[in-house]
Amino acid sequence: MKMYASMGFAVLACWGAWCNVAVAADATGREVLLDNSHVQVVRLEYPAGSESGLHTHEYPARTVYVLQGGEVEIVAPHGEKRPLTLATGSVFVMPAATHNIQNVGTSAVMLLEQELKYAHPEVDEVLEQAQIRALLTQFLTGVEEAEVHNNFWADDLVYTSSRGTRTNKAAIMAGFENPRDTPTEGPVYSAEDVDIRLYGETAVLAFTLVAKASGEAGQAATTDYYLNTGTLLKREGTGQVVAWQATKKAAL
User: Fold this and answer.
1) How many other CB atoms are found less than 10 A from the CB of residue 14?
2) Which distant-in-sequence residues (6+ apart) come within 8 Å of 192 by Cβ?
């Protein structure tokens, strides 16, 4: 199914009891720099073509600082892959998870992870925002896949497109039942100015959708921008979109 842009589819100081340094490295490039009752700090290195193997981050949250960036794929236990570009110097927060990390680039990737062993309301809020941002990234990178849409949209979705039409999840999913005989390459989607606001079990996600189309033979590449706002409800531990509004951004 080819998505069309008009629909607008579219995260050491050390003293006293806190100190318990244990430096240990293994053959996979995992080096534990600090491990105590509060935090574990680990330096990770993934040479080009290597992978971590399936593993679990059991603590509530972790920060990740990218010492040396590259291209990786995050592989879920059931095999689903999510590509991710890690920029050197970037830092982000991740929740507990089970996955395999594969370095699919041509150079080594090095990370500094800080596993937080306790929960805190402010940390929980940051984690929820990070989960929603990851959900959005997964959706935009898998926008041509029916399963991605099925997971992203709630069954009771109300969707207002940038063309001024209203639709629902059933209609969106029906578009995957009769794929084009000759698939055409659709735009590449990304998100800018992401704003996530939490209200208990509800979240509002607002961002600018960037749709880059390479252009067919003899046509110039184009970039369109859409203002998207979605309302998500937490259901069975994950968020699903129950309402969506897409508006083409006015030219400046």
Assistant:
1) 10
2) 207, 208, 210
Cβ atoms of 144 and 158 within 8 Å: the answer is: no
Rounded distance, CA 78 to CA 56, Å?
Answer: 14
Burial zone of 138 (CB within 10 Å; 0-12 exposed, 13-18 middle, 19+ buried): buried
How far apart are the C-alpha atoms of 43 and 55, rounded to whole Å?
Answer: 16
Spatial separation of the C-alpha atoms in residues 136 and 112, rounded to whole Å: 24
Q: Does 18 score more than 50 pLDDT?
A: no
The tens digit of pLDDT for each residue in 85-109 reads 888 988 877 878 899 999 999 999 9
Per-residue tokens: 240 = 């699903």
Amino acid at 57: H
Q: Rounded CA gap, 70 and 72, in Å?
A: 7
Asked if 24 contacts 32 with a C-beta cutoff of 8 angstroms, the reply is yes
For residues 113 and 64, the answer to whether their CB atoms sit within 8 Å is yes
User: Which run of H or of E encompasses 137?
Assistant: helix 121-141
Q: Which of 127, 130, 89 is nearest to 110 (CA)?
A: 89
8 A C-beta contact, residue 115 and residue 40: yes
Rg of the chain over all Cα atoms, to the nearest angstrom: 20
